[in-house]
Design goal:
With 251 residues, this protein is mainly alpha-helical. It has twelve helices and two strands, in the order H-E-H-H-E-H-H-H-H-H-H-H-H-H. It has a two-stranded antiparallel sheet with strand order 1-2. Helix 9 packs antiparallel against helix 10. The relative contact order is 0.12.
């Protein structure tokens, strides 16, 4: 079986942090009804946008600030009361999401410091705080995969399998289990978004090549080449396959 696991180092390099751009599971921004929120130490509008809007890198933080009656660049003091454009009926979901987001933020710092045991504990706390949010599940699954705990990672990801990043990891697990067709289906979910991960494009392209769909594979390699932000090793892989054509030997 050809290796799709070659994309795992690239995934691990971006673990534990703001990413996913899929629509939020429960929280909805509204312009007419608001919820009071007390600004916490370490908060920023970008952090809140990442958590509440599931914005990849906090996109939309300017609009969130303005809708809350503040300038996006305003430095608010902890304890400041703000009115977030979140319906009061979703107060419990708001609190759960922000609690989980703070655990993920702490996990990020611990991961970057090399303490993956403590990072994993923080991510588990995040999952318990907001079970429907895919980001802490994804980050924790990455740590599990790095330790060879693929079955545990699969179980953790299944409840959020419709999310692109979760689908990518599940596809890699299926691939390692020699279930190519299941992996292809998962990877098709992973790229079914306006801005799929470069790793998802590469993995899906390889899956298409293995299953004989060279046309679809070439389309994904071309998309990867056009993504200037993609990791250089993946873009070089795309160059190779685009130049060599359908007869290319897989990695």
């Amino acid at each position: 079986m050809k290796k799709l696991w070659l994309v795992l180092p690239a995934l691990a390099a971006v673990s534990c942090g703001p990413r996913e751009s899929a629509p939020p599971a429960v929280l909805t921004v509204t312009g007419d009804r608001t919820s009071e929120y007390e600004w916490q130490e370490g908060d920023s509008w970008r952090f809140l946008a990442w958590a509440l809007l599931d914005a990849d890198r906090g996109e939309g933080h300017e609009a969130l600030a303005i809708m809350s009656g503040h300038r996006p660049d305003a430095a608010l003091r902890p304890g400041t009361k703000v009115r977030l454009p979140i319906d009061p009926s979703m107060r419990a979901e708001l609190d759960s999401r922000l609690t989980a987001a703070r655990h993920v933020r702490t996990a990020t710092a611990l991961h970057e410091a090399g303490d993956d045991e403590a990072s994993g504990r923080e991510l588990m706390e995040a999952v318990e705080a907001d079970p429907g949010w895919s980001i802490p599940r994804y980050d924790l699954a990455l740590l599990m995969l790095e330790r060879g705990r693929a079955d545990s990672a699969r179980e953790l990801l299944e409840p959020v399998s419709s999310k692109p990043r979760a689908a990518l990891l599940l596809g890699l697990i299926d691939w390692e289990n020699d279930d190519v067709l299941a992996a292809r289906r998962r990877l098709e979910t992973a790229i079914a978004t306006d801005a799929p991960q470069a790793e998802a494009l590469a993995a899906a392209a390889i899956a298409y090549m293995v299953t004989g769909d060279s046309y679809l594979a070439n389309r994904l390699w071309t998309r990867l080449l056009q993504d200037a932000s993609a990791p250089s090793e993946l873009r070089l892989m795309a160059v190779r396959f685009c130049l060599e054509g359908p007869g290319s030997r897989l990695p």
